[in-house]
Amino acid sequence: MQISVQSGGLVSNVGPEAGYRMIREAGFTAIDWNIDSSLNRAGMKKLPLENLCIFERPLDEVMAYFADQLTHIRKNGLTITQAHAPFPAYMLERPETLDYSIGLYRRCIELCDAVGCQNLIVHSISFYGSDYTNTPESIKALNYRLYGSLIDVLTKTNVTVCLENLFTSSPKGLLEGACSNPYEAVEYIDTLNEMAGKPCFGLCLDTGHLNLLRKDFRVYVPILGQRIKALHIHDNNGLADQHLLPYTGTVNWNDFCQSLHDIGYAGNLSFETFAQVRPDRLNRELIPLFLRTICGVGEYFRARITEAN
Asked: Which residues are bridge partners to 120 per DSSP?
């Protein structure tokens, strides 16, 4: 069970050489690779949908684009345990964005396979209360189209695409997004794996999103069980998606550890705490201290989750 942290927020600000060195010196052995930052999201609102992301290009060009990062990842002995695909997959005002995103994700899977990254997190499409075009049923059909279009690539690799429990925002507050209902998440994952004929899909459990929607680990986690393949560990105040260090918000971390222990979770512990290590919020000389603290919390969680009954 490796302890990993996001590359985003740090590497994008201080550069690959310093960023990956800081991560390794803090005690981490792995990273959650933020390849999602390569997408020009603002450009998705305009036509044509081209020249917005490196994942439009052939795999050899993609590998060349990330060559400097990969050099420093390997130099520091870090494993890429999971990666975050670009998002969103779909924009209501531009339905053609779905086909565009599918093309990006297919290339992301190939990249992950080439660099030995086991899990790729791909956000589902959620239903918005202000969406008068779609229905929950039509959104579900779009999600099956999205993930179903990746199966032929996935079955040729060792990569697992992970859905994530999401939330959405509205003028009336936060609403449940895709897979926030554990039974919906189970239905998606089991149906997609049946379509694939092998385990190609799982869940990335996001602790902060559960907290925002007042979801209980003791209810959610047992329903998903071994379908949970990856984690986004972070804290918040229950009102905003703050991506904080555990124990600085309102997440119940005792329930988190106990629930993962009870299902025999054996995956990695990946922290999505980029807000704590961004140089625009934290003096650079303090970043190593915060990284060491995050890693230390990971070591504590690992001991709690893996301890014998």
From this structure: 83, 161
Residues sharing a CB contact under 8 Å with residue 111, sequence separation 6 or more, in sequence order: 35, 55, 59, 62, 63, 66, 83, 117
3-state helix, strand, coil in the chain (%, to 5): 45, 15, 35
Q: Tokens at residue 260, please? A: 């993962």
Q: For residue range 90-137, list pLDDT tens digits in order.
A: 988 888 999 999 999 999 999 999 999 999 999 999 987 677 788 889
Return the amino acid letter for 172. Answer: K
Q: At what angle do helices 136-148 and 97-115 cross, to 10 degrees?
A: 40
Structure confidence by residue, pLDDT tens digits, 126-141: 987 677 788 889 999 9
Pairing relation of β-strands 228-232 and 201-206?
parallel
* Euclidean distance between CA atoms 200 and 179, whole angstroms: 17
SS3 state at 305: helix
Give the domain CATH number at 289.
Answer: 3.20.20.150
Burial 131-148 (b: 16+ CB within 10 A, else e): eeebeeeebbebbeebbe
Tell me how many domains the chain contains. 1
What's the whole-model pTM score? 0.95
What count of other Cβ atoms lies within 10 Å of the Cβ of residue 191? Answer: 14
User: Helix, strand, or coil here: 226?
Assistant: helix
Q: Strand ranges (DSSP E) for 226-306?
A: 228-232, 269-271
Q: Tell me which residue range forms the domain holding 53.
A: 3-306
Give the count of beta carbons closer than 10 Å to the beta carbon of residue 29. Answer: 16
